[in-house]
Q: What sequence folds into this?
C-alpha cells in the first residue's frame, strides 16, 4: 500500500501550503517533492496569455451505435443501505486548497476492500458519527466520488471524495459548522467511516471512447470529472482507450482554490490532442467587459465552437456543482441556439433524452 500511496501522491495536486493527514511520513515527503513547474503557467489562463490548445476536429464523426450508459450489466446501486453501511477506513486526508482560499476543500481516500463496486460518476453516502439535536443518528449526506473505479491506488479497493468544509454564519450571527462535511474534513487516517451506496446514474461516463465530453464544474463539482479524467488519461484498460476530446471548464473563486490543477495539467501535457482545460477564477479574472469570470463567462469565449460540438451526436455535456451555474449556462445556450433558429428548451430536452446533457447540481 505504501508504494501505491506514493503513486497517488505523485499524481494528486497539492498547493504548497497543503495540510496532509497521512499515515506515512514518506508520503508527505513525496507530495512535497512533486514537480510543480508546469503548473505556474496556467494560473493566468484566460487572463491574456494564449495557452497551447488541442485542435478540435469539426469533421462529422463516424456514426457509432449509441449504447446507454445506464444499461450497464455490472452497474451496482444501493448495495449498502443506512441500516447496514459499509465501514471503511480513512487512509489519507489532504487539504487541497491554499491557506488563503475562501474555504477549505479536502481530498480523502477510504478503504473499501473492493466491497463498494462503484463506477466513475456515481456518488456514495456518508453517515457522520454522532447524533442530531433529537438524539437520533445523523442522516447520510451524498458525495460525488472523486476517484475512478480503480481508485487512487489502482487496486479497486479505495474510494476518494473531494469535500468542501461548510461553515456559515446564521441569522443570529452564530458560526455554524456543517455536520458531515466537518466530520469528513476532520477525519484522521485510521478512523472508521460509514459508507452507503453507491448511487446515481446521471453522471455515468459515455461508453463511446471517441466521444466529445464537455465537463462543466464549479468547486467540488469537479469530483466526478476527476474520476472520468483519471480513467481517460492516467489508466490503461483493455476495453477502453479514450481517443475523443475531453474539455474541462472549472470555476473556482481564487487561484488558490483551483482543485487538482497539477493533475489536469499533467493530463494536458500527456494528451494535448485529446484534452482541453479552461479555468474561470471568479474573484481574480474578468472578461473584456469587466464582468466576473464565472464558468459560463469562460464558456462564452468559445460559444460558436461549443455550439458546433453540441450538434454532433457523440458530444456529451456534464454539469456538476453549484445550482446557480445551470441557469448561467442555459442563458448562453439560449442565445447560441437562437442564432440557428433553434429553441434551446426543446433542443435540451432532446439532448437529455439521448443522455447528452447531464446535470447534477446542488
Ligand atoms: C448528489 C450530491 C453530490 C454531492 N457531492 C458533494 C461533493 O462531492 N462534495 C461536497 O463537498 N459536497 C457534495 N454534496 C453536498 C453534501 O451532500 C452536503 O450537503 C454538504 O457537505 C453539506 O453537508 P453538511 O452535513 O456539512 O451540512 P449540514 O449540517 O447538512 O448543513 C447544511 C444546511 O445548512 C444550511 N446552510 C448552508 N449554508 C448556509 C448559509 N450560507 N446560510 C444559511 N444556512 C446555510 C442549509 O440549511 C443546509 O441545508 C453533494 C450533494 C449531492 C446531493
Ligand atoms: N453531484 C452534486 O450535486 C454535487 C457534487 C459536488 C458538489 N456539489 C455542490 O457544488 C457546490 C460547490 O461549491 P463549492 O463551495 O465547492 O464551490 P466554490 O469553491 O465556492 O466555487 C464555486 C465557484 O462558482 C462560482 N459561482 C457562484 N455563483 C455562480 C453562478 N450563479 N454561476 C456560475 N458560477 C457561480 C463562485 O464564484 P463566487 O463565489 O466568486 O461568486 C466560485 O467561483 C456545493 O454546493 C456542493 O454541495 C454538488
A:
Amino acid at each position: 500500500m505504501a508504494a501505491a500511496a506514493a503513486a497517488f501522491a505523485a499524481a494528486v495536486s497539492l498547493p504548497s501550503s497543503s495540510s496532509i493527514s497521512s499515515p506515512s511520513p514518506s508520503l508527505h515527503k513525496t507530495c512535497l517533492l512533486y514537480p510543480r513547474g508546469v503548473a505556474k503557467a496556467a494560473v493566468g489562463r484566460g487572463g491574456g496569455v494564449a495557452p497551447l490548445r488541442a485542435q478540435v476536429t469539426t469533421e462529422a464523426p463516424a456514426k457509432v451505435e449509441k449504447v446507454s450508459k445506464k444499461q450497464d450489466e455490472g452497474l451496482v446501486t444501493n448495495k449498502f443501505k443506512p441500516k447496514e453501511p459499509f465501514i471503511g477506513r480513512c487512509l489519507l486526508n489532504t487539504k487541497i486548497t491554499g491557506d488563503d482560499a475562501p474555504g477549505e476543500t479536502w481530498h480523502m481516500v477510504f478503504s473499501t476492500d473492493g466491497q463498494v463496486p462503484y463506477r466513475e460518476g456515481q456518488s456514495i453516502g456518508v453517515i457522520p458519527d454522532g447524533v442530531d439535536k433529537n438524539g437520533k443518528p445523523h442522516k447520510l449526506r451524498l458525495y460525488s466520488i472523486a476517484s475512478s473505479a480503480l481508485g487512487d491506488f489502482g487496486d479497486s479497493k479505495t474510494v476518494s471524495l473531494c469535500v468542501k468544509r461548510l461553515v456559515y454564519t446564521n441569522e443570529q450571527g452564530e458560526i455554524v459548522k456543517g455536520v458531515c462535511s466537518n466530520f469528513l474534513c476532520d477525519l484522521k487516517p485510521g478512523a472508521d467511516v460509514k459508507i452507503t451506496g453507491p448511487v446515481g446514474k446521471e453522471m455515468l461516463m459515455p461508453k463511446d471512447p471517441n466521444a466529445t465530453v464537455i465537463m462543466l464544474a464549479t468547486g467540488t463539482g469537479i469530483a466526478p470529472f476527476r474520476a472520468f479524467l483519471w480513467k481517460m488519461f492516467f489508466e490503461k484498460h483493455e476495453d477502453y482507450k479514450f481517443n475523443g476530446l475531453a474539455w474541462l471548464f472549472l470555476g473556482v473563486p481564487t487561484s488558490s482554490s483551483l482543485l487538482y490543477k497539477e493533475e489536469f495539467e499533467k493530463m494536458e501535457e500527456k494528451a494535448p490532442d485529446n484534452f482541453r482545460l479552461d479555468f474561470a477564477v471568479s474573484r481574480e479574472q474578468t472578461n473584456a467587459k469587466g464582468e466576473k469570470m464565472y464558468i459560463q463567462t469562460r464558456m462564452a469565449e468559445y460559444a460558436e465552437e461549443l455550439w458546433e460540438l453540441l450538434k454532433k451526436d457523440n458530444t456529451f455535456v456534464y454539469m456538476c456543482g453549484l445550482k446557480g451555474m445551470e441557469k448561467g449556462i442555459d442563458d448562453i445556450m439560449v442565445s447560441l441556439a437562437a442564432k440557428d433558429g433553434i429553441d434551446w428548451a426543446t433542443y435540451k430536452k432532446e439532448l437529455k433524452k439521448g443522455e447528452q446533457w447531464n446535470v447534477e447540481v446542488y
